[in-house]
Specification:
single chain, 149 residues, mainly alpha, Arc Repressor Mutant, subunit A
Amino acid sequence: MEYEQLKLKNQLCFRLYTAARLTMSAYHPHLDPLGITYSQYLVLLVLWEQDKQPVCDIAKRLMLDTNTVTPLLQRMEKAGLLKRTKGKTDTRQRIVTLTEKGMAMREQAKHIPECLGASIIEKMEGGEKLAAMVPMLDQLIDGLKAKDK
């Protein structure tokens, strides 16, 4: 007996997984010269938007557990990109702040979104389809987050 719903070609999750994996892979040529991973790039994006944040806020923005973010931050601290200090009111809390090196990397990385966007648009029929996907993906993420709670 064959189950149509169990065929790989019928799996939305496989398409999302593959698109995510290939997208992250497309970042490597841009991030490798900076000496950072895609996950570290995401942390930097959060901190470039607003520096001096608690670990839990960074984790929340990235939709990750603090247990996942903490080792990432530790590696970034060893690389000199940021520093973690105790919170003033709650010493159990860790506040993450960019170092000069981490701030300077923003200038080096400013071309990355544009380069990747151009590369993806080049492979699709214009940017309109890509732009139309963003709200749909946000809606999917929000729906999945709601089920996760």
